[in-house]
Amino acid sequence: MYFNGQSVDVDCQQSWHYYDNSYIKKMTQRDYLDYCEKDRKRRNDFSQQLPELTLEKYAGLFGRIDNIPLCQIGFVVNTNKLIHVANLRVELILKNDAGVSDERMVAFPPLGLNTLGAEQGMGDSFKSIGYLLMKNGDLCDYHKLTFTVKSATATINGKKVDLLKTDNLHIIQNR
């Protein structure tokens, strides 16, 4: 919160206090404060810009319950800027090679908060993964599944943005 400036002004010293008392402590005070200050500067530099986001299929998990095929299809979204992207919702039209289709909404956890990652442990906060549980076995073949985006909205730097109108969401189709 104090590192990212969510609902409060960025306060690197206060953020360090919480980090220093945490179980995940992985860096020195000097390194931590340097990251915090660099992130604050980058967020300020990009505060009036929209990030470029990419969306692609990420993974598929497959199984069966009572002989009914189930799967979970993952989608990953990446950002190119250190800008807080929250409430990202993407409505997808999924289609297999036989023409079977379905419309589904995938929600993503926040991304672009800081260079340390969500747990402030040197993770990757420039990407976020959302999953869809598919109960239609016809859409469980990850390699034959394609998608188009029907709608995409997010809150970016506190403002609601239609990512299709602004042309800031780019699709990567992979097989």
Summarize, please.
The protein has 175 residues and is mainly beta. The protein contains two helices and eight strands, in the order ααββββββββ.
**Strand line-up in the sheet with most strands:** 5-2-1-8
Radius of gyration: 19 Å
Residue runs with pLDDT of under 50 for 5 or more positions: none
Into which percentage range does the β-strand content fall?
35-45%
Q: What's the average pLDDT?
A: 84
Main sheet properties:
4 strands, mixed
Organism: Salmonella enterica subsp. enterica serovar Inverness str. R8-3668
Protein name: Tetratricopeptide repeat family protein
Summarize the SSE layout with pairings:
Elements: H1 12-20, H2 29-45, E1 53-65, E2 68-79, E3 85-95, E4 101-108, E5 127-134, E6 146-156, E7 159-162, E8 169-172
Parallel strand pairs: 1-8
Antiparallel strand pairs: 1-2, 2-5, 3-4, 3-6, 6-7
Helix pairs in contact: 1-2
Protein name: Tetratricopeptide repeat family protein
Organism: Salmonella enterica subsp. enterica serovar Inverness str. R8-3668
Task: Give a quick set of tags describing it.
single chain; 175 residues; mainly beta; Immunoglobulin-like; 2 domains; 4-stranded mixed beta sheet; 4-stranded antiparallel beta sheet; 2 helices; 8 strands; Tetratricopeptide repeat family protein
Structural notes for this entry:
The structure is a single chain. With 175 residues, the chain is mainly beta. The protein folds into two domains: 1-45; 49-172, Immunoglobulin-like, CATH 2.60.40. 15% of the residues lie in helices and 41% in strands. The protein has two helices and eight strands. The protein has helices spanning 12-20, 29-45; strands spanning 53-65, 68-79, 85-95, 101-108, 127-134, 146-156, 159-162, 169-172. Strands 5-2-1-8 form a four-stranded mixed β-sheet, with no helix packed on it. Strands 4-3-6-7 form a four-stranded antiparallel β-sheet, with no helix packed on it. Strand 1 and strand 2 (68-79) form a beta hairpin. Helix 1 crosses helix 2 (29-45). The protein is elongated, with a radius of gyration of 19 Å. The termini are far apart. The model has no long low-confidence stretch (mean pLDDT 84). This is Tetratricopeptide repeat family protein.
